[in-house]
Amino acid sequence: MIKSNSGIRKTDVINRRMFIIGAAKVIVFVGIVARLFSLQINENKKYLTLSDKNRIREWKLPPTRGNIVDYFGNVIAGNLKVYQLHIIPEQVENFNYLLVRLKNLLNLSDKRIARINKLKAELKPWDSIIVSENLSWSQFVKINNYLYDLVGIKPVMTISRNYPFNDVYTHVLGYVSQPNEQEILENEIIQERFVPGMKIGKLGLEKRLENHLIGTNAIQRYEVNAYGKRINQLEHQKGEQGSKIRLTVDTEIQKACGKLLNEKAGSISVMDIYTGDIIAMYSSPSYNPNLFLFGISQDEWQLIRNNPLKPLINKTLSGLYSPGSTIKPIVALSALENKVIDTKFKVKCTGKIELYGQTFHCWKEKGHGWVSLKNAMKQSCDTYFYEVARLLGVDRLNITAEKFGLGKKVLGDYFDNEKKGLFPNTKWKKNNLGKGWVLGETLITGIGQGYTQTTPLQLCMMTAQIANGGFAVKPKIIVDSNPISYEDAKQSMESGLLFDTESEELLDKKLFKNQRNIKIVQEAMFASTNERFGTSYKSRIDDPKYQFAGKTGTAQVKRISKRERELDLELEQIPYKDRDHALYVAYGPYVNPRYALSIIVEHGGSGSKAAAPIAKKLFKLIIDRHDLRNKQSNFERITV
Amino acid sequence: MFQHDRLSNEITLFQKIKNLDYILLISVILLSVLSVFVMYSTDGGEILFHTKNHFVKLAVFFPLMIFVALFNIKFWHNFSYIIYFIVILLLIYVSFFGIKSSGSQRWMDLYLFVLQPSELMKIAIIMCLAKYFHRIKIENVNSFTSIIIVLSIIIIPIIFVISQPDLGTSILIALSGLIILWLGGMRIKYFIYSFITFLISLPFIISFLKPYQKLRILTFLDPDRDPLGAGYQIIQSKIAIGSGGLNGKGFLKGTQSYLDFLPEKHTDFIFTLFSEEFGFIGSVGLLILYSIIIFRILRIGAISRSNFARLFCFGYAFAIFIYIVVNLSMVLGLLPIVGSPLPIMSYGGSSMLATMIGFGIVLSAKINHKQMIA
Question: What pTM value is reported for the model?
Answer without folding.
Answer: 0.70
